[in-house]
Specification:
mainly alpha
């Protein structure tokens, strides 16, 4: 089971749909072998939500409810895991829009491991949903130290650009959007984001 989880983790960091599908298959196998393994359940739930998100697919209410139950089991089985609380917090925030529940899981994850960088995204996304753009930007400064070593830099830049646009900081949004679109020139969504940022500052050449 641990080998299957390790395989899934390595596939996740490759950041392709094919690798993510293979990672999810490995986690399905891990859960089949050990149905009550909390870490496998949490990783599988997060993996499935990631895949449906990038593919713009809507899971059925039944599937989403089952993922929520799996994450509750994971929390019960792994009460000292920062990742498990983070995974349930992400589910509560993104699926249920339960800001109070997400805040509780964020707090517990940080209590277990104050240095767990993954929780930064949840803090920023929660602030963004609450309209607290300054709070979201402040949270995301934690990633600045990672620089080019951040495997999710394009995603971070995209999120930064969206927050900056919401905060009315068009110039800064333009810088983030340009860098993201340069790093991933074939991503149509990023090109549209760049166009929006260019339009906001009157950069007709960038359009």
């Amino acid at each position: 089971v641990s080998e299957l989880r390790a395989r899934a983790a390595s596939k996740f960091f490759k950041q392709t749909i094919e690798d993510w599908n293979e990672g999810l298959a490995a986690l399905d196998r891990a859960v089949l072998l050990s149905p009550g393994d909390g870490m496998s359940l949490a990783m599988r739930a997060q993996s499935r939500l990631n895949l449906s998100g990038v593919m713009f697919a809507n899971e059925t209410p039944e599937v989403l409810d089952q993922l929520g139950r799996d994450l509750d089991v994971a929390v019960a089985e792994c009460p000292t895991s920062d990742f498990v609380f983070w995974a349930r917090g992400a589910y509560r925030l993104k699926v249920k829009r339960d800001l109070t529940g997400a805040a509780s899981d964020i707090a517990r994850s940080r209590e277990i491991n104050p240095n767990f960088i993954g929780v930064v995204d949840l803090i920023a996304q929660k602030a963004f949903l609450e309209g607290d753009y300054d709070g979201a930007l402040e949270a995301l400064t934690a990633y600045e130290e990672m620089g080019s070593g951040d495997p999710f830099r394009v995603n971070r830049l995209c999120f930064n650009a969206r927050i900056l646009l919401g905060a009315g900081e068009a110039e800064a949004a333009h810088v983030a959007a340009l860098e993201a679109s340069d790093l991933s020139p074939m991503d149509r969504g990023l090109q549209l984001l760049k166009a929006l940022a260019c339009e906001k500052i009157g950069d007709k050449a960038g359009l």
